[in-house]
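Hi,

I'm pasting everything inline rather than attaching a file, because the server keeps stripping attachments. The sequence lines come first, and each chain or strand is labelled.
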Amino acid sequence: MKILVAVKQVAALDEDFEMRDDGRDIDPDFFIRDLNEWDDFSLEEAVKIKESSAEPVEVVAVSVGTDEVDESLRKCLAKGADRAVRVWDAAVEGSDSIAIARILAAVAKREAPDMLFAGVQSSDQSFASTGIATAAFLGWPHAAVVSNLNYSPGTKSAVFRRELEGGMLHEVEIQCPAVLTIQLGINTPRYASLRSIKQAAAKPIEVLSPADVGLAAAHVGETGSSSRVRRMFVPDKGRAQLIAGDAAQQAARLAEIIKEFKGASA
Amino acid sequence: MSGILVIAEQRRGELRPISLELITAAQGLRRAGDEVAIAVLSDSPESFSGSLSLAGVDEIVTVKTAAPEFDPDTFESAVGALIAKRAPDVVLVAHSVDSFGYAAALAARLGLGFATDVFDARRIDGELVATRGGYGQKVHVEVDFPGRSTVLLAIRGNVFKPPESPATPKVSAFDAPPAQSRSTGREFIELSAGDDVDMTAAEFILTIGRGIGEEAKVPQFRELAEAIGATLGCSRPIADAGWLPKSRQVGQSGKTASACKLYIAMGVSGAIQHLAGMKHVSTIVAVNTDAEASIFGVAKYGIVGDIFEIADELRKHF
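And the predicted assembly:
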């Protein structure tokens, strides 16, 4: 039995970041990289299933990106993934979520897992589409925003709850193998112990090119994408009127605002 | 071919508000001669015709489905067939949980131009250009779709105002090919979680976020909220950690602060999902140590400072 977990290394922006010369992205020098928060939950879900399964289950983390991504894959290995796969070559540069999904699907065909998890979205680009597009390329059943899952590897179906808007859940049964996108809060992701971090260093990260998984260069990168970034810019945003002073002065002004509100609504 | 196809969203017999917002989003993309058609998928789609008969809609397309509620395979198949038949330039769907479940699959399968969480879409020199956020909304990203004859855009909620004037669009029925559904919807479950608070009715809310750091700090904010007469709310991480019940979560997947007039956010960074539940509040005061936090982009007043110090000082006034 095998569960494939698609993960992304996301970038947060450093203070005073600068644009890349072509104006279509941020200068990567200002990136603070980490494993996508959602993916921490989907990995944990896979590892939990593995730990509670009577049958042996292999958890494989897969990501698309340069060798910088190995750091996030090591984190996955330290948290319980058995091995990791990373796909990259220069042709992948400029891929949007659809092109990334095509690569993930190609890896999934090679790995033939019983289930594929992805995060609902990434914290940096927030496309909320990579996992479900991957399912389309595989022709697999799929569901998004899973906040509770009942699945035993090897069974033909799983039952889960989709987290809808406004505090509502929807219970659904799905045929397996399937692609599920996992929501925050589905579990409590573990911290990697020092010992597991050390062990992770010895676990394999297999590095493949798109060609290795049967994809031509034209199917990835900008030509394989369904959108193209024209430009990126910092918006003129509405700014709050800042309340100056030390904590006592700031709190005094806040107290005034509260009392004004109460006076008006009394 | 041409025209704009809008996919309405309904749940349990009610049209979701975003459906009407999509009609307004479509108007900005009309070219001469373009018609805006809105399709509604349900086991009784005609029941929505009345509420969709609004200015800006040229045609209502009813699509009868076997199941009453959203199902990814049914939607993919029916919307795919609609696109094949009508060949619209643009298809608009909501950036919502239901769309998360099928829009990307449709775009991938049909080779559509595709962008999600779009809050602005227009034609620049004839080219469709969509704008979305990037890097936790710190930047805006303009995307286009070279070589794509049909572009699918998932539109962010609460951006476009719904049309108000009634109209009398034509109504047509579309026979969707039968779909083989690989998942089965069971029941809907309303989260109540043993707390009788109604965030949607509260006029004054004090919300705590990740910035409080640990569960042990929750009681002091509960006490502060009580002292100042506010209802205590929270952002997602606090509810996920179980420090406050889910019923107190404000945001997209939690509650909307519908009746709120004064909203104090302490240690809330302002993820887009949280903002969706509160950015409409007329007076928002944000307290955060990070001067760059996105919450300051929607707040009327901002305090850059330590939430614990501010809380202690504020308590002395009540």
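Chain B touches chain A through 99 residues (CB under 8 Å).

If the labels don't parse on your end, tell me and I'll reformat.
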